[in-house]
Amino acid sequence: MSAIPKLVRGLVYLAYSVVIMLVFGLAAYTSFSLFVRSGVTTVPPVEGLARGEAAARLADQGLRLRGVENEGRYSEKVPAGHVVRQSPDARTLVKRGSGVTVVLSNGPQRVEVPELEGKTLPAAQAALSGSGLTVGRLLGAFSTTASTGSVLTSDPGTGANIPPSTPVHVLLALNLPAERYVMPDLVYRDYESVRPLFEQRGFTFGNVKYERYEGVAAGVILRQYPLPGHPLTKQDNISLVVATAETPIDSATPLFLTPNSPTSPNAPVPASPTPVPEGGPP
Predict the structure, then answer these.
(1) CA-CA distance, 172 to 139, in Å (whole number)?
(2) Same topology for domains 111-175 and 179-282, yes or no?
(3) Which CATH class is domain 179-282?
(4) pLDDT tens digits for 98-139?
């Protein structure tokens, strides 16, 4: 019977000893944690602040601005001269007195539109690509001065500062369409009378052949190209076949280039002495 109380008392002493050890252990851990944490602080967020404002906020937390990276970073949101990045990041635990490095913003990145006027399309594409830009819409406009296919202007224009990869629209020069006339009927006309009329107005004769044709006087036009009624420009060559027989001809009938319909030896012609463009006078 006496052994049971002794066993109980031993268990009580053991439990008491364990409680005492737990209390001392918890007190020691708490004291150590407070000691350690008394020298630790949280890094505040300084992104978006100016350099001076960032340094002041770090100082309030017992930290210092350790330095600024030499190369900034472009940002569409953060103004130039303000913090765009920090290291360590915000809400990181560090020792008091530690330094924080920041990167300042260079502001939005912009590139300058190069001069494109007068360049060919491939040269303009290369210039835009070298500037970090792209070719936008290609438009055309008639020009009497610029060479065909060269750049007349661009949008945005030369020297404009725009974001990288922005498309630049290009206006290219096109040749003015040649003035068109209606080819008259020259058959049975006198070649020597016809030739000055055409040459004085800028038309050219290409291949002129001579053939003997019985019953037709020398100098009379037998065949022509372009054919009567076909369109004709001053860049086209006129080819003729002319008779060489020597018989009198009546060359008194005047010859004119007329709009919309060919002339014929028996048809009346307008009194205008100059070639008339297709569709009416200019």
Answers:
(1) 6
(2) yes
(3) alpha beta
(4) 889 999 999 999 999 999 999 999 999 999 999 999 999 999
> Hey, where are the domains in the chain?
1-38, 42-107, 111-175, 179-282
Q: At residue 78, what is the residue type?
A: V
* CA nearest to 124, candidates 174, 162, 115, 158: 115
Pair of tokens at residue 228: 């009567």
Q: What element of type H or E holds 169?
A: strand 167-175
Lookup result for tokens 């001076």:
52
CA distance 74 to 48: 13
More confident residue, 274 or 37: 37
Question: Tens digit of pLDDT for each residue in 175-211?
Answer: 877 788 999 999 999 999 999 999 998 898 989 999 9
CATH number for 42-107: choose from 3.30.10.20, 2.30.30.230, 3.40.190.10, 3.40.50.10230: 3.30.10.20
- Tokens representing residue 254 in the block: 């005047």
